[in-house]
Amino acid sequence: MTVDLLLLLAGGLAAGTMGGLLGLGGGIILMPLLRFVVGLPAATAAGTTILAVFFTTLGGTYRHLRQKQLRLASILPLVLTGAAASALFSLVFDYLARRGRWLDLGIGLVFAGIAGRMIHSGFSHRTDDQPGAAGDNRVRGPLWLKLVIGAAAGVLPGLLGIGTGGILVPVLTFLLLTPIKTAMAASLACFSVNAAISAAFKAAQGHIVTEVALPLCLGTVTGANLGAMLNRRFSSRAVKLLFGAVFAYVSLRFVLSFHGANA
């Protein structure tokens, strides 16, 4: 039990640190940990992960706000439509929970897309460290586009119990020309709301294991603050390549799990 507790604490710490550093939720670490190491069913792993990820995003958001990297009023449309989408697709999740192999496939495909985006960004000569206006802590853009992006960002937390930082950060950066640090802060803030709603639904549906979630949450809170501090001076190119490779491996594990269950 001690080893299991230490494993969960370490996993939460790693997930939180990555979340605070790269503007992600940390589910890329927690989902495979709970699914393939701890051995939870797909739906339970997703539900427990989304609760822990909520604390990752909450801690990271708080740290970014203290560093004045985000103006909350500028992301209100993203938050509102994201919350609505998370609630709606959380209802669909309970249907998918009875078909765990489809959850594995969906998560695997999303992770594959994130892996490709991260590896491409890491190898690209184009830097995304300083897009947009220097010192600008707002997410700019037309209202309708923010509403659409927010709604799209709320689908995956509700439907699959995973975050959208690997998608939302580049969308804000390259489509709305948001500075990368502001995009990461916005991603964490939006996802903290989405994750809270998704976790509430999944708790009510019985897909969260409390004794597993508690040490994960303790680790993620600590790690999220550490990652947000590192974000101020850490070069992200090597990290993108490393986590891109990890995303690709984990994606393969989930897809193979679907194939094995389908065989």
What oligomeric assembly is this protein in?
A: single chain
Compute the separation of the termini in Å.
34 Å
Beta content comes to under 5%
Helix/strand/pairing category: mainly alpha
- Total helices: the number is 10
Runs with pLDDT <50, length 5+? Answer: 127-134
Question: Helicity, in percent?
Answer: over 70%
> What summary fits the major beta sheet?
none
Shape label: globular
Features of this protein?
263 residues, mainly alpha, 10 helices, globular
Summarize the structure.
The chain has 263 residues and is mainly α.
Question: How would you sum up this structure, described in words?
Answer:
The protein is mainly α. It has one domain (2-262). The protein contains ten helices and no strands. It has helices spanning 2-22, 27-37, 42-66, 76-96, 100-123, 143-160, 165-175, 180-204, 210-230, 237-262. Helix 1 (2-22) packs antiparallel against helix 2 and helix 7 packs antiparallel against helix 8. It is globular. It starts with a helix and ends with a helix.
Topology:
Elements: H1 2-22, H2 27-37, H3 42-66, H4 76-96, H5 100-123, H6 143-160, H7 165-175, H8 180-204, H9 210-230, H10 237-262
Helix pairs in contact: 1-2, 1-3, 1-9, 2-3, 3-8, 3-9, 4-6, 4-8, 5-10, 6-8, 7-8
